Amino acid sequence: MNSKQESRDGVVASYQDAPTRTVSAGGVDFAYRELGPKTGVPVVFLTHLAAVLDNWDPRVVDGIAAKHRVIAFDNRGVGASTGATPKTIEAMAADAVTFIRALGLTEVDILAFSMGGMIAQVIAQDEPELVRKLIIAGTGPAGGEGIKNVTWISHLDTIRALLTRQDPKQFLFFTRTPNGKRAGKEFLARLKERKTNRDKAISLRSYGAQLTAIHRWGLAQPSDLSVIRQPVLVANGDNDRMVPTKNTHDLARRLPDSELVIYPDAGHGGIFQYHHQFVTKALEFLTR
User: Fold this and answer.
1) pLDDT value of residue 10
2) Under DSSP, is residue 29 helix (H, G, I), strand (E, B) or coil?
């Protein structure tokens, strides 16, 4: 999509053209980007460990924004947002709710990936009236198997990436098969499509706080997910090293109104590897 391509009514159609705005609430200036039609229930995107606004796959954002208002944001202390990043998923969820309400929204759909999917589960439990539908990918429940290992897996793959001069996400998000390696390179190239007004990288302090929060989530007692009554689309690759795929199956079993999608020969970033299929499925789920 060529730059500045907007429809006649001023709707931003492409994530790479979406301006970064801020809204202040709870002592935080939240940085966010918005695109897509201005009507209907908005889809709020909740992102992964270490991610800022520029880490969303533009094919996924633009695909959803073709039919829905999409809002992506940096939570407290992340990227261009101010404040100190909390060390619990629950506090991150409270900050996300503060941001959503600051935009004047009373009902949203949530599309959440990895750590974002943990935050989404808490929001759905704490603020059920705020959430219409959930799409959660590459994530697991509190106390889920292997989640407490995210820290050492992240450190290990960061070292592997440094030694091979690659991006850690090539190892963390994708399989080491020919398909996985190719999908990883294509995904990383898409993340660089936005050339101007890019977000600030996450600070080491915020990254450390997020790792602490995920570790605590992995050690927590399981919660009663049967209280989440909203429809939930649960997705992952079949070979997720970061949040083992059995957690995705566990979520689908424990959520009363869930639908499960597992992508073959794919890792943690399965929704990015299979972005065409994922966007089609997500749009169908949101419209149903």
Assistant:
1) 77
2) strand
Token pair of 4 as six digits: 């500045």
Q: How far apart are alpha carbons 44 and 152 in whole angstroms?
A: 30
Dig out the tokens for 231 from the structure. Answer: 């429809």
Domains with residue ranges and CATH for the chain: 15-287 (3.40.50.1820)
Instruction: In whole angstroms, give the CA distance from residue 278 to residue 234.
Output: 11
Instruction: Quick: pLDDT tens for 86-117.
Output: 999 999 999 999 999 999 999 999 999 999 99
> In the chain, pLDDT over 70 holds for what percent of residues?
97
Question: 3-state SS of the chain: helix, strand, coil percent to 5?
Answer: 45, 15, 40
Per-residue model confidence as pLDDT tens digits over 223-238: 999 999 999 999 999 9
| Chain mean position to CA 74 | 11
Q: 245 Cβ partners below 8 Å, 6+ apart? A: 236, 237, 238, 239, 262
Q: Which amino acid is at 223?
A: S
Residues 6+ apart with CB under 8 A from 73: 30, 31, 32, 33, 44, 45, 53, 81, 96, 99
**Cα–Cα distance, 75 to 83 (Å, whole number):** 9
Between CA 8 and CA 132 the distance in angstroms is 30
What CA–CA distance (Å, rounded) separates 256 from 244? Answer: 21
